[in-house]
């Protein structure tokens, strides 16, 4: 149900001439959302920065690890076991970033060290994005 506030915000966006672009949340454009150097692509440093921020957000108990519940379905049980070298059922930030780096390289189809929108929209790219948002 639309509230008066949401109707006002939608109306204001259209009246400002911004149209649907103003309504498109940055989360729908991961390049724009995480591209800190504004070059139109994501490099590994930008991806790791976003992944670190999400790790911190997901670590609600502030133990410095993410368990299966905190990961919220980002990894299957098999993937978690493979990413968890000490087999304690949790991922440290370094272990989490290891998965992120593997997925980054899997998504980097042209091997140029950056991901563009097309690569992020691939199956491997979408798998990576689950670790960024």
Describe the protein's topology.
Layout lengths: L3 H12 L4 H4 L6 H5 L7 E2 H15 L6 E3 H4 L5 H7 L6 E3 H15 L6 E2 L1 H4 L2 H7 L4
Antiparallel strand pairs: 1-4, 2-3
Helix pairs in contact: 4-7, 7-9
Low-confidence stretches: 5-25
Arithmetic mean of pLDDT: 85
Q: Output the number of helix runs.
A: 9
Radius of gyration: 18 Å
Order of helices and strands: HHHEHEHHEHEHH
Relative helix content: 40-55%
Detailed description of the structure:
It is a single chain. The protein has 133 residues and is mostly helical. Helix content is 55%, strand content 8%. It has a two-stranded antiparallel ribbon with strand order 1-4. Strands 2-3 form a two-stranded antiparallel ribbon. About 16% of the residues have low confidence.
Short description:
By secondary structure, this protein is mostly helical. The chain has helices spanning 4-15, 20-23, 30-34, 44-58, 68-71, 77-83, 93-107, 117-120, 123-129, and strands at 42-43, 65-67, 90-92, 114-115.
